[in-house]
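May I ask for a sample protein chain and its fold as tokens?
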Amino acid sequence: MLASIEVSTRVSSVALWDLKTGQEKAELLLSSDKESSVTLLPGLKTLLESNGLTGKDITAIAVALGPGSFTGIRIGIATAEGLAMPSHLPVFGISTLDGLAENLRAAGHLGNALGLIDAGRGECFVGQYLIEKESFRETTAPAILKIEALKDLIRDKAWVIGAGFLKYEKEIKESLGAKGQWVEAGLHDPKASSIARLAYHQWQSGLRPGLETLKPLYLRIPSVDEKKP
């Protein structure tokens, strides 16, 4: 059983993915009233117990690497490390932006896409993708961009997804106009199940990554580090 962790943004969740059947076992949305440092492990325990499982049934870990909340990313990676280390379990680090792209693919929204995660300062962490029926591919490297710069990324039309869109919806719709394609509200939040599905594809291909592969995808250095001389 693969345990998946997505706590890189304001909406956090955990999921279980059956590596034998290739199917999602269960997913749980964590409370937004408390920090993920408080809810993550109890949430995972609840998810396991409600499905008649224990920690011993976990044979692999997946975790969202960001970009997103610096604190959330750190908590997610640290928890994944703690779960994987004792038994040397494989651990799959997945981009949060890739998770948004997988939301689109799974919902059947094909074509060009922009994944947007709020970066503060009137900016978004931006991922550009081409979504196809069975997979997707990143078309440019992730970047931090002002809202007004998004229109220059789209030649024809593109799906726009993510909490960055929700925060700047009015400005983005005015800027993109007919170039933008809008998705249903439930797709904008990263999902542990999408992170799990992407990790499962890597598992199927034979990958068994270790802890040394877990590198946070910040794009911008934390503000606490910006202040250092």
Q: What stands out?
A: Residues 130 and 137 are 5 Å apart (CA to CA).
